[in-house]
User: Fold these one by one.
Assistant:
Number 1:
Amino acid sequence: MDVHSLDLMIEYSYPLYRPPAEADNIIIQATYGCSYNNCTFCSMYKTKSFEVRDIEDVFRDVDTLAKLYPDARKIFLADGDALALDTNYLLKLLSYLKQSFVKLGRVSLYASAQNILNKSSQELEELKENGLNLIYYGVETGSDTVLKKITKGVNQSEIIESLNKASDAGLKISATVILGMGGIKYSDEHIKESAKIINETKVNYLSTLQLGLEEESKEKFYKHFSDFEMLSDTELLQEQKKFLELLNPTNKIIFRSNHASNALHLGGNLPREKDRLVQELEDAINVGEMAFVPRMFRGF
């Protein structure tokens, strides 16, 4: 489902982002922008301020989309971290979605550690019981040093606490780690501590993507991370290999590394297919650039 064709029917506020897995699903903007919006590496919502939409306006979008796509089964709530919304607002919206889309099976949204920690366990459980199924969560890195340099606003222990709080409430979690986030100097620390987060939590889906800095983000990024040096594609794949080698999850994780930014596309189930994934990375590293996705076909 093309969001630009939907824009002819409802009025989206751009830029509009959604996870790759939501490409064919309905997108409903309950908020504009990101409630935190201070991460130095991210330029997604720098052109707009965080705003909570009037719920009646959101309901009108739901009505329009329900008439056009009555059999829709999956809905993504935008923008940057809709879990920042007041719980009562979310419960009203979830109820309206359920009555409007009779075949609805999944509602998802972006969420941050701050969002989750600001809600009680009871609130999260109530959201799950009323139809919120999946949260997309940017871990980015587990290194406290790097988290501070990218002004993420949380530390490793808070990330672990929030992820466990969400999974204990029954929410499924799709987590992302950014390869190269620590640069050359903090590469080992970045990978080791990121793996620790995954091993001490129960995420259901895990993705890795490669760091890319938009021009408008570079000045602020390097101001806070003055000793940053970008890794090469080979070094990024070596990071990914170390990351997978260190993973020992206690639950089944669906792993994907197929974001448009990645030099090598991978997919499998952890821990069952860990050895195969590591071997594929080793083979690609040994072959070199001929095995990588050409840069002209990569993006963010």
Number 2:
Amino acid sequence: MLDDALLAIDNLCVAYDGSNALNGVSLRISKGELICVVGANGAGKTSLIRSIAGIVPSSGGSVRMKGVDITRLPPWEICEMGIAQVAEGRQIFSALSVEDNLLIGGALKRARDDQMGTLEFVYQLFERLRERRRQLAGTLSGGEQQMLAIGRAIMSKPEVVMFDEPSIGLSPALTDVMFGVVKSLNDQGITVLLVEQNVAKSLALSSRGYVLENGSVVLHGSSKELLENPDIQRAYLGM
């Protein structure tokens, strides 16, 4: 484990109706890292993200940001601590304009002072959103809605962005674009936790990875080590 963790998860447990979704998951993310959590559908990846974000209560363990225990904080306070989530399914405000969605993301105390500057940064990153800024978000294509979900997260001036299955429902070409955006944000200093079913692309992008199976971490190591692991190659890469 790394001692200088920006985000530290220890023995995190989550249960739904008596069934365990996470069984003592521990991981570390240092400032500036891009790490991935991979595994099959139902492995517990989304439960991990939602629990860190405060959306799903944990039944045991802890989450610490910069050494501060945030396990029991409500989601909005966790956002103020600098953790943003790009949720599976995007979860945009369909009846609001693109720009209003983005401005909501920038309404946190930590983000208000530079809201317009961050908005311009998002528009430079996604020129399509600038073109569509007056359009209702619900009328955007799937790829554009994913851009909006990422842009809204960036508007909160986060230190950590958690991506939950960002490639779901996207074409291969758009998937490549989204992974490129994730890498670009990390190159600009944002720490990234990427949760994905696309094991090959996730490990190619990240420096380290964790493999979840049935709510438990079964493997952890450098992305290179995991890509070369025969069990990973057989189970996830079709080799």
Number 3:
Amino acid sequence: MPDNKQRRVILTGGNTGIGYFTALQLVKQGDHVTLACRNLDKAKSAADKIAAETNSTGGVVDTAELDLADLSSVRDFAASAPDRVDVLINNAGVMMPATRRATVDGFELQFGTNHLGHFALTGHLLPKLRASDKATVVTVSSVAHKQAPKLDFDDLQATRGYNPQRGYANSKLSNLLFALELQRRLDAAKIDITSNAAHPGISSTELYSSPDGLGSSKIASLVAAVGLPIISQSAKAGALPTLHALEKGGPGSYTGPKWLFESRGAPAPAKLSGKAKDRQLAEKLWEASERLTGVVYDLG
């Protein structure tokens, strides 16, 4: 990793897991990283740990409140962000709550947080990304995107039948469709911003125990507690694909771990499902996302 980048970086959900280790590495190399998190106390605790470990590197870490499940919070955060943003890492997420839950705006929690929140955030920050010489947006997806059955545009909010795993897979497919469609639209507008995606494989993070997600099911959280240490890699290793995507991934790329069906190992090009490559599906999702969030990207 290159040293002394001194970029302005916004990273969502950087208080734990792969987000924390992504932020730690970026601050080590001299970047100014803002941990944008819903729980400000946890964010400040993580920032203190990062600052203590990196106090001689020249990097900076600070915090800001951002609730991706509340579009007004997304809008307020973006308005308060620096005038220039060099890197945006759409990392935060929620995974498989046992019962259907809704965001402040009434969206199904996984689709609303993982996709719509980041869609709105990136759109609001676009003028500040354009103020950078060459900005990069990395969106964190998952190998679970391959399990997505379909995007039901008549029921994107899963009001007619909620399945935790299907909802999560669809939200991660949406992340990929968004990242790739954003790059196509940036290219068409001749805007020099890179959009790409990454996934952490199977990494041991708090996603598996969070009460907002899988931890809301006692059985699922128990299975995860027993099985995860056997099949997963560390959260620190899980951060490597995101870092690789940022530094070397290139426009429209997708990075994940190399080994054991992309579950672990060094970063390498990852495989896209057929649905993730579907440009018509991406365009349809983009139009639906603009309609649902009210955020229209200014690519003029």
Number 4:
Amino acid sequence: MWTKTFASKVLREFAEARRRVISDWRIHLTARRLAHTENKPLPDEKKATDIRQELVGRGDIASVEGVAGVYIVNVAYANLLEVSEEQIVQEANPWAVFGYLTAMTYHGLTDLVAKEIYPIASKNGGNTHRLPLGTMPDDWSEGTRLIAARRPERVGDVSVHWTQLTEEPGFGVMIGYSSGIPIYVTDVERTLLDALRAPDKSGGIAKVLKAWRSAEDVDVGKLVSYADAYGNKVLRQRVGFLLEKLGKTHSRLEEWRHGLQRGGSVKLVASSPYSETFSAEWNLSLNVPPSILAIIEGS
């Protein structure tokens, strides 16, 4: 009887949060919160599993195909709420950050209709810079690890392309919203930098240059700070070139010019062959077709 009663209380918590996408770890955490409030023993993993099985058995929640440990709530309140692929990926991996083309779409930096999702995760799985969204520090104060971060390859018909970092940089992440539910997404400045670093994950170099030109309210100081934080001289050369083409200035650009990296790897697009078209000021091979280069030049 306790399972049925507790399952109903857990479901009520999700209703109050207007959350339709849930997970094994969120069921466990919510059950622990309720037990703590009622001064009852904290449910262990087995009891949390019993609660989830009760909800599944009643038809209140259903598994997401291909995404282990994530469920869709099917009761009356939930039918009014939209579910997005980003919500499902975020619930499967609560430390994931949406970047590249997904972030470009979120910030209105591209006209592409994204048919794929591009999340970023660090190698160690968790992240000391962020809490899983919808949780509080007190939820983790007892040191209990409730989350097995997963990396689904598909959500329904949508492919999920993960980027694994050895370590999360610790900057350029903001809280956005997908159908009213919070998600982690790279901010405009980091999105522009990451797109320049990986055009293949961002719709191609033409779309990347269009994004740079369309980002009228970009914070140049923040952009320059992030480029410095990445610690890559070639990236600075690319950023410096683009900023000056866009008519934007910053005191660091002159310092960057004094520390130019020279050699065979200095190309605007790393994966493309060299071009004789060249920026002598930034020692940068402008290895894209003239029609694409014209995008950043505003013609």
